[in-house]
Amino acid sequence: MTEFELIAHYFTRPVRRAALGVGDDCALLLPTPGMQLAVSSDMLVAGRHFFADVAPERLGHKALAVNLSDLAACGARPLAFTLALALPCVDPAWLAGFARGLLALADSHGCELVGGDTTRGPLNICITVFGELPAGQALLRSGARPGDDIYASGSLGDARLALLALQGHIALPAEPLARARQRLELPTPRLALGQALRGIASSAVDLSDGLLGDLAHILRASGVGACIDTRATSQLMAESARETSASSALDPELLRQCTLAGGDDYELAFTAPPALRAAVAAAAQASATPVARIGAVQAEPGLRLVDAQGQPVVNRYASFDHFQ
Ligand code: ADP
Ligand code: MG
Predict the structure, then answer these.
(1) N or C: which end of the chain has fewer CB within 10 A?
(2) Distance from the CA of 25 to the center of ligand 2, in angstroms?
(3) Per-residue DSSP letters for 300-323?
C-alpha cells in the first residue's frame, strides 16, 4: 500500500462543515462569522504517552480526546482536526482499529478530519484541533480573582492507578482495573461543561498533568494563590479505588497522590465568583457533568492545602513533568 492509498483508504471522508478536506495542499475551513478560532496541538509518542501494544481503537480515541480536552478548557466547540502520523510499517488491522476509534469520537463531536501528514518512523501521533467560540468569550487561565471559588469536574486518579497497575507497581482486582484502565485509555473530554461555563467561569484549565500542577498554571497566569480543601478533594478520588476491596488494599497516601497529582484525567478545573454558584450548578447539570467545589482563590501567591479542620497539610504532590 502506498502512502496515498493509505491516506485515501483510512483517513479520507467527505466533509460537511469544512469547505475542503483531505486531498489538496491545504484544507479550507469555514468558521461561523463573528466566531474566534481556538487551535491546539498535542503529540502522543509511543513508550512515553502510551504502551506501543495498546488497543489501536483506544489509541485513536485518546489521541483526539486529549486534544478535544484543550478545546473544552477554553469553552470552544470542535470544528475540525488534522492528523500527523509516523508509522513504523503499514499494518492494515492496526490502521483500521486506530481510524475506527479516532473517527467515532470525531463524529460524536462533529469534528471533521480535514488533513494531516503521513510518514514512516517510530509510532508518533500529532493532532491539531480547531474549534470556535464567540469572540472574547474564551475561558483563559489568567482570569482567576481573589475570592473566586475553585472547582474540579468528575473524579481524579483512575488513570494514574491504571498506569501504576499496568507497570506492575500496584495490584488491582480485575473489575476496578478495567474501570481505571478505561479512564486511562478512553478519556472523556468535558466539552459540554466547558461550553456551558462560558460567561460563568473566570478561568479554566484541563487536567492532563495532575490537579495541583495544572491548577498552578491558573494561579501563575492570574497572579493569585489558592487554598485547597483536602477533604473536598478526597471526595474526587478515583472511582475504581472506591470499591472497598480495592481501596482497602491500597495505601491511602498513594490514593491521595493519584487524586491530587495523578495526570491523564482530562477533567476540568476552573474558578468562578461565589455569586455564580447557582449558575455553576446549572452548567454542571445542563452538561450532565459532576462538579465539586474544592477551594478558594486568595491574593497571596502559592498553593496551600488544608484538612477538614482548616489545619495546613504539607503539599508534596508534584505533578507530572516529561523533563524531570
Ligand atoms: P503535501 O505534500 O502537499 O504536504 P501530502 O502529500 O503530505 O501533501 O498529503 C496529501 C493530502 O493528504 C493532504 O491533503 C494532506 O492534508 C492529507 N493527509 C496526509 N496524511 C494524512 C493523515 N494522516 N490524515 C488525514 N489526511 C492526511
Ligand atoms: Mg503541498
Answers:
(1) C
(2) 4
(3) SSEEEEE-TTS-EE----PPP-TT
